[in-house]
Amino acid sequence: MIKASEFLLSQNQALLANFSQLKAEENHAKPLIQFMKGDPTEFGHEQCKMSQIGYDIVKSEISKSQNHSYCHSTGTQPAKQAVAKHFSHGKQITENDVIITQGVNQGLFYCLLGICDPGQNILVPELGFPFFDGIAQAYQVEVRKYKLQSDNKWQIDFEDLKSKLDQNTKFLYVINPSNPCGSVFSKEHIQEIINWANQNHVLIVADEIYYGMSFGEFVSFGELADEGPIICLGGMDKMFFTPGWQISWMIFYDKNNYADEIKKAMFNLCQLLLHANVFVMNSLPQILDQLTIHYAKDRMIHFKENHDYLIQELNQIKGLKCIPAQGTFYLAVLIDLDVFQVKNDTEFAKKLLKEQNIMLLPLSWNGTDKYQGFRMLTIATKEVYIEMIARMKEFLSRV
């Protein structure tokens, strides 16, 4: 037998060790309530779908013969021009500063390959989407976790951040708005982060796939970009509730051309995986023009209603503590292990699934053991939450 690489085998084992523990029973007495996937379309919520206008735009592009051919590996010119136009934030951003990717993960992969060499390190948040946790090992790049302040809207602990920095640090990875915390950095805090990066000559990679999904003000890192280079990643996935379309982008805010070599390297990297879907890319100009970059923002009131309801109800359950979010459709909930008589949040999730057929994502699966809890979604209907709360209370009564 020809063996797979040791890296791949180790990653598979880690994934299986988690997901094999959360398998729903086929013949459970209660229907499954599944909160694992960060997919806004999962529950069919009326506010979690693309407008018919968007569907009609895509349909019209499908019929054009030129939209079924190869294009430049960095994306079609109309798509890159549209992204540059709508996300310039008053800066001199052109199509030459944009790469269209097949999902933000591809952009993160390009950042790893295009910026880092073996033996170097990157700074990533603890808690945060754990993309780099496994894959960086394959390229012998160290992942260093910096602390977030759970009692201060998940802001960065700069004292801890500074302790992780050295001459081999290649970039600072920030997720704003945050998955899984649901936090949204204030304009003042973003400016603090940018100032710190500039003072320490560190490139910022800002994951903004949840762009605009704030209950209040949202400020992009691109808006405040000044002297130092910032790479912002975004996409249609959450902004237009089309995660299956996988149309995303990278934007280089770099007026002093400090990262010009990196940008050229990433343009070359694009030839490895080629480009995203052409007819959807060429739908982007009209979609951005007609539906605007505020499409998701305009629907946040519905997620806020669910957010507030969940905090009210979950906080009444002994052993649960919600940390209020400022946006997205996520809510971090901490659990008291002693109350539920479990050793960790994975065991909690396993028992809840077995007894009540509710599937939750443990917080520890987001690259940390510091926080024990689960990520709640605010995208379901009220009926789903009422049923879930009733089952949670029943679960606690049996502990």
Q: Main beta sheet: strand number and arrangement? A: 8 strands, mixed
State the helix count: 16
Strand content: 15-25%
Q: Extract low-pLDDT stretches.
A: none
User: Which class do the helix and strand fractions yield?
Assistant: alpha/beta
What oligomeric state do these chains adopt?
single chain
Helix amount: 25-40%
Shape: globular
Biggest sheet strand order reads 2-9-8-7-6-3-4-5
Mean pLDDT: 92
| H/E element sequence | HEHHEHEHEEHEHEHEHEHHHHEEHHEEEH
What is the CA-based Rg, rounded?
Answer: 21 Å
Gap between N and C termini, in Å? 48 Å
The total count of strands amounts to 14
Task: Give a nutshell description of this structure.
With 399 residues, the protein is of the alpha/beta class.
Report on the architecture of this protein.
The protein has 399 residues and is α/β, with parallel strands linked by helices. Helix 3 runs parallel beside helix 12. The longest helix is centred in the C-terminal third of the chain and has 16 residues. The model has no long low-confidence stretch (mean pLDDT 92). Its cofactor is pyridoxal 5'-phosphate. It holds the Pfam family Aminotran_1_2.
